[in-house]
Write a structure and sequence with these properties.
- The chain is built from 4 helices and 2 strands.
- The protein is mostly helical and 138 residues long.
- The protein folds into 2 domains: 6-46; 64-135.
- Helix 1 crosses helix 2 (27-46) and helix 3 (76-97) runs antiparallel to helix 4 (102-125).
């Protein structure tokens, strides 16, 4: 069993091919470099990867089927940004509520309105599946 993972070996090969072959002038490593690049271009040209799912079924007249697409979940960066925005809005609302003067109450109302707007924006960005229903009536 190899002490390294396949990913680590690929990385090391690519690194050696670049440094020793492309920059160093070693013909063997230069050939490895060229083969790696050609393999990458081949994958891009032939679109190597997962093939789309195909399902085939007979439909009766009046039958309905639904196509559901769930968008990808938000990334960690997006979640962090939304959490930070909500925390900032809550902080602003709580700071304004401390002063009970007429002016501060207007500010508090304005801040609460902004916070509600922000939460609506965040709720809109949450993952919601898209559903398309298609019926066959002939």
């Amino acid at each position: 069993m190899l002490p390294f993972s396949k990913k680590a070996l690929k990385y090391q090969m690519r690194r050696n091919a670049t440094t020793k072959g492309l920059f160093g002038g070693n013909k063997l490593w230069l050939a490895v470099f060229v083969l790696q690049r050609l393999g990458g271009f081949k994958n891009k040209l032939t679109k190597g990867g997962e093939m789309p799912v195909e399902i085939s079924e007979d439909m009766k007249q009046g039958g309905v089927f639904a196509i559901i697409h769930n968008p990808p979940p938000p990334t960690k960066k997006q979640l962090k940004k939304e959490k930070k925005a909500l925390a900032k809005a809550d902080k602003r609302a709580s700071v304004v509520e401390v002063k009970p003067s007429k002016r501060s109450s207007k500010k508090a109302a304005k801040a609460a309105k902004k916070a509600a707007k922000r939460t609506k924006k965040v709720e809109k960005r949450l993952v919601k599946p898209t559903v398309v229903e298609i019926g066959l009536d002939r």
